[in-house]
Design a protein that fits this description.
heterodimer, A: mainly alpha, MetI-like fold, 74% helix, extended, B: alpha/beta, six-stranded mixed sheet, four-stranded antiparallel sheet, 11 helices, 35% helix
């Protein structure tokens, strides 16, 4: 019957075209390129992680590793631990953060809330940009010139912290600045309209609103400076003993321990270097997790 | 409590741009005054100048006098913070503080001014929320974040926050423009209630709203783009909407332009 064929035929030609071959090809190509770049970027990181864990993980499953130093052990004796280096890394990172974080947050507050586009603010932004590009060895040598050569003070863990401060400030200023900028002006105006002075608006409204992100930024920055090697090489000596005094004497840290033990070319040295590498990665991971936990706890909720 | 406002020869600037030219008007106490006019005519700018929020914008400045019961809020000895404590403001978009609970949002003004007494704060929160017709809806979740409320509830929360500091005057900058009709109705009813205690100035783009809620209406207009806005006419709302003296007012409210 002719009516059946009429029903099979669409009443009007379709209004929409199919995706043509060239667009389909371009889409495939772009997908492959993006996915390829992802794998290319990730592969070395995964490889590195696997290597470090494979070579070092077995040494850290040991209570002594976390509780003892290498004091009294020769380069041929297994045993001992890296407690002295963990303490050094944490102490130096902590002192650095205690000095750098308040300064950096105040700078960011000035830039966003007070300086705006003034000449001083632009100069500060420019300086922060330069500072964020300074290699750690340059920061270390600057502190050496200031602390040791000019002021005549001995090399110490505190000098290391000062060099780390130079590296940490620009990172924290930048992240804090960006986070303060995305706090809506409407919140500031709401506070002003209640008769809240500007400084109180910043302290009680603006900073708490941005707090979650600021904490993430700080924890990333702390994690970064704890792995810095140049400052510890230049500004403090290695020791196998535990030292809690940042102003006096040599103090080990994980990067310094690794560079020192790298010269021990036997199985003992290998154990210490790779074990310390795993330890450092673990500590940095814990810091990042801690940071994201705190930032989740302080993040803005709607429910 | 409620005070009168007299504006005398007010000129407002954004940097070099002359935004509002020679505005003089009077707002009696316990009265709702609506500002209407096309976009860019300066009605929001005038409103913001009434509690010195105008100068918060970089480069913005004001010339002339704004008298609150005869006292010039632009006098050189006056602290703008104390002006804003006396003249509250509700904004176009609801802006509860995202870090604070509903209760803390309401008492934010007092808490940030240093009041610590929990019992007193709870009392104030309840009174302000009742005043903003929000108490029944939120009394069981005062410790939940303010951001979880609906848009209309958030706006009433902002009104509660503004009246919790017991201002003399309440300024409202298009408070219903982001809300649905039901929430708008709730806010309009609330304005009628609040009028008993506060002097209210409201900017609105909705002429029906101006006709519904206000006792007197000010019509602002501008001669053209880049020209300063002017106050064309201020009169009883009924008069403005039935028999305005100025041709421009009539054209605007009858929908011939704007």
């Amino acid at each position: 019957m002719s009516t059946a064929t009429d029903l099979d035929r669409p009443a009007t030609p379709p209004a929409f075209q199919e995706i043509n071959a060239s667009r389909r090809f371009k889409n495939r190509l772009a997908t492959v390129l993006v996915a390829g770049a992802f794998v290319f970027a990730l592969a070395p990181l995964v490889w590195l992680l696997i290597t470090v864990l494979a070579k070092g993980l077995r040494y850290v499953f040991n209570a002594d590793w976390w509780q003892k130093s290498l004091a009294g052990l020769t380069s041929r004796q297994f045993g001992g631990g890296v407690y002295h280096a963990i303490i050094g890394t944490l102490l130096q990172g902590l002192i650095c953060a205690v000095i750098a974080v308040p300064i950096a947050i105040l700078v960011a507050v000035y830039l966003v809330e007070y300086g705006k586009r003034s000449r001083l603010a632009r100069a500060v932004t420019f300086t922060v940009d330069i500072l964020s590009g300074v290699p750690s060895i340059v920061a270390a040598l600057f502190i050496y010139a200031l602390w040791v050569t000019t002021l005549g003070l001995p090399r110490s863990a505190f000098a290391v912290s000062l060099a780390l401060v130079l590296l940490m400030i620009p990172v924290v200023v930048r992240t804090t600045e960006e986070l303060l900028k995305i706090v809506p002006d409407e919140l500031r105006e709401a506070a002003y309209a209640l008769g809240v002075p500007k400084w109180k608006t910043i302290v009680k409204i603006v900073i708490p609103t941005a707090m979650s992100g600021i904490i993430t930024g700080i924890s990333l920055a702390v994690a970064r400076v704890m792995g810095e090697t140049a400052p510890v090489l230049v500004l403090v000596g290695y020791t196998a003993y535990i030292n809690y005094d940042p102003f006096d004497g040599n103090m080990a840290s994980l990067p310094l321990l690794m560079t020192a033990e790298r010269l021990t070319t036997n199985a003992v040295g290998e154990a210490r270097v790779w074990g310390a590498a795993v330890t450092l990665i673990l500590i940095i991971t814990v810091f990042n997790l801690l940071g994201s936990l705190i930032s989740r706890l302080t993040s803005l909720k709607t429910k | 409590m409620a005070k009168r406002i007299d504006v005398k020869d007010l000129n407002l600037f954004y940097g070099k741009f002359h935004a509002v030219d020679q505005v003089s008007l009077a707002v009696p106490p316990r009265n709702v005054t609506a500002f209407i006019g096309p976009s860019g005519c300066g009605k929001s700018t005038v409103l913001r100048s009434l509690n010195r929020m105008h100068e918060v914008i970089p480069g913005a400045r004001a010339e002339g006098k704004v008298l609150l019961d005869g006292e010039d809020i632009y006098a050189s000895t006056v602290d703008p913070v104390s002006v804003r404590r006396t003249i509250g403001m509700v904004f176009q978009r609801p802006n509860p503080f995202p870090t604070m609970s509903i209760r803390d949002n309401v008492v934010a003004g007092l808490k940030l001014a240093g009041l610590r007494d929990r019992k007193k704060l709870d009392e104030v929160a309840e009174r302000a929320l009742r005043g903003a017709n929000l108490w029944a809806e939120v009394k069981d979740r005062l410790n939940r974040p303010g951001g979880g409320l609906s848009g209309g509830q958030q706006q009433r929360l902002c009104i509660a926050r503004a009246i919790a500091v017991q201002p003399d005057v309440l300024l409202m900058d298009e408070p219903c423009s982001a809300l649905d009709p039901i929430s708008t109705l709730a806010i309009e009813d609330l304005i009628q209630e609040l009028k008993k205690d506060f002097t209210i100035v409201i900017v609105t783009h909705n002429m029906q709203q101006a006709a519904r809620v206000s006792d007197q209406t000010a019509f602002f207009n501008l001669a053209g783009v880049g020209q300063p806005g002017r106050l064309i006419e201020l009169d009883d709302t009924e008069k403005i909407f039935s028999n305005p003296t100025q041709k421009a007012t009539e054209d605007y409210i009858s929908g011939r332009f704007g």
